[in-house]
Amino acid sequence: MQAKPDWESVLKLFNYNREYVQLGASQFIVSHPEPVRTAIENFRRELDENRVLYTEEKEMGMMQRVREIAAAYFAVPNADDIAMTDSTTMGLGTIYTALNLQKGHEVLTTNHDHYSQHEAIRQATQRSGGSFRRIDLYKNLAEVTTEEIVDSVVRNISEQTRVLGITWVHSSSGLKLPVPAITKALAKINAGRDAQNKVLLLLDGVHGFGTEMETFPELGCDFFIAGCHKWIYGPRGNGLVAATREAWQLVNPVIPSFTDTMEVVIAEEERPKEMDGLQMTPGGFHALEHRWALYDAFKMHLDLGKQQVWDRVHQLNRLCKEGLADMPHVTLHTPLADEFSAGIISFEVDGYTTPETVEALLKKKVVATAAPYKTSWARFTPGIINSEEEVMKGLEAVYSLKKT
Ligand SMILES: Cc1ncc(COP(=O)(O)O)c(C=O)c1O
User: Fold this and answer.
1) How far is residue 317 from each of residues 51, 170, 322, measured CA to CA in Å?
2) Is the pTM of this model over 0.90?
3) Which atom in ligand 1 lies closest to the alpha carbon of residue 89?
4) Range(s) of the domain holding residue 316
């Protein structure tokens, strides 16, 4: 077990304006921590000073370094099975399109996923002739169980279902899904299906990636898609897709990749036979200093310790949720149990709409956010960028909204 980090020093790695209580930042867009800022600046200087220092070998090596540390962080067996993207949205759009779902193929998804997943599915199925269906996973969030969620999935899988598209931690409610239990149930269904009819699990994992303990093999999904500019605290404009080698064989690239594939294609005018994450990495020149400095964000997590980060995020979230649950004028929507929650807390304040809540808190210098969903609640997202004191200040501000 790694030593407990000094969380006060961790706070100082971030340049947040602490005149504001930053309780709405982690789930939105990252503030770069010090090691990431330094790495970006070093790479930027190098690239600005002498473009000749940039070579294809260097780019491949730098990106492989990022893939390898991401694979170590998430226990992906082969680093080549990680595709680098700009965001969760780019990963979702790329993979749903690359699956080339045909008429008679259905994507089963839920009413709890983010716009980016819903639109990626709609656009991809519209293009290729597939269809989609959205379901509710539970009736009442306050009483949700693993059995209810798994049962909702299993009951709704039809003969046509080829993909199950779900979200690890819902950014609407903060609910964390029991993904390993879902994949176990899916494996039973798939055991009775032939290879081309198996149901693939595509997981939008962005709000568990960087806080939760489960690894890629433990989650058991076929495609794991996340941005790295939220809870990983990587440079803005970074994301990844991890997939099993078998799953990669089921997709066709959408955007040409700039990897060794390029040389093979130029020399042999045909694509390499086996697909992987390298070939599914959209090519073109990117903001290289941001891409390469992602290494330093994963290193920060590994140095802090995955378990230590989980403990800290859950400790702060428990403190915040228990405080909100005790307030008579507040409805807490996120489950209290660690098992069903991560770093997002959704709540409503009596007598206020969600935009009014966010605005009233901002006037008190507390930053909350509103989620982009049909039913949108106010959110706090305590993370390693926060202290207990900030959580208490956030709670005081919510308490002061009580109308007499
Ligand atoms: C569940 C979920 N998926 C996807 C996204 C989009 O993330 P990105 O900015 O990495 O595309 C968000 C945004 O917050 C989200 O909450």
Assistant:
1) 46, 15, 8
2) yes
3) 11
4) 7-23+306-399
